[in-house]
Specification:
Elements (H helix, E strand, L loop, with lengths): L1 E6 L3 H18 L3 E6 L2 H5 L8 E5 L7 H9 L6 E6 L4 H4 L7 E4 L4 H19 L2 E6 L2 E6 L3 E7 L2 E6 L2 E6 L2 H8 L4 E5 L2 E4 L3 E5 L2 E4 L2 E4 L2 H19 L1
Parallel strand pairs: 1-2, 1-3, 3-4, 4-5
Antiparallel strand pairs: 6-7, 8-9, 8-12, 9-10, 11-12, 13-14, 14-15
Length: 236
């Protein structure tokens, strides 16, 4: 099921977009879970990265679509955003919030269905490489490729990523089960390391982005075997 939000302050357009989604479902066999918001501040309030695609009107009364998208991008870098607008110049500004596309009003079904197909295609390519992580105050979605390593710290996990560090609830075993098939390997009981970001081994440590992560005596041999196998596959 694909979760889609419609953010539109004009009820006529909101209903039209809902009808277009229903028509697309029938023609393509997709299943949508549709939520409608009447303003940008409605979707931003307590946003928890719960949608796959957002159809966002640009001009709204309280919070415009561009401002709403900026707020959403702070916690969700992966949701696909399509702007609905009657002004083409907003398409250029859309790049600042990584909008996939825009549709001009009045919206035709043909143009809408083309953009939606592209959005679903991008979403499906990403979904195998995205994980949802519960952090304080909500949920974020992380691209697995951008995770350097995960550190166990007490009863929490620290996700060290390209965009910063995130403290999350959960156990190392749970995250290892989820990421074990994506070239992550335990260096010791406290670290789950993305082999793609290991630059080398030095003084018994895996070097990850210049940071030495100690390899335990019990795990070092298996870690080295996994790393050697990974490097071999990358070189092929």
């Amino acid at each position: 099921m694909i979760k889609i939000a419609i953010v539109e302050d004009e009820s006529m357009y909101a209903e039209q977009l809902r009808d277009y989604l229903k028509q697309y479902e029938k023609e393509n066999g997709d299943v949508f879970d549709i939520t409608v918001y009447s303003d940008g501040d409605d979707i931003v309030h307590k946003y928890k990265a719960q949608f796959d695609i957002i159809l966002m009107d640009v001009e709204m009364k309280f919070m415009d679509g561009m401002s709403a998208a900026e707020e959403i991008r702070k916690v969700d870098t992966e949701v696909v955003i399509i702007f609905i607008t009657n002004m083409a110049q907003y398409a250029i500004r859309g790049y600042a919030v990584d909008a996939l596309d825009y549709v001009l009003k009045p919206v035709s079904y043909f143009a809408f269905s083309q953009r939606l197909s592209r959005a679903i295609g991008r979403m499906k390519k990403r979904e195998q490489k995205i994980i949802s992580v519960n952090i304080k105050g909500g949920t974020i979605r992380l691209d697995v490729a951008n995770i350097y390593y995960i550190e166990s710290q007490g009863h929490n996990l620290i996700f060290h990523t390209a965009s910063g560090d995130y403290e999350a609830s959960g156990t190392m075993k749970d995250v290892e089960d989820k990421l074990g098939e994506m070239n992550f390997f335990r260096g010791n009981k406290g670290y789950l390391i993305n082999l793609a970001h290991v630059d080398g081994i030095q003084d018994g440590c895996a070097m990850v982005k210049g940071e030495p992560l100690l390899l335990s005596r019990a795990r070092k041999k298996e870690f080295m075997e996994a790393l050697t196998k990974y490097w071999g596959e990358v070189v092929k």
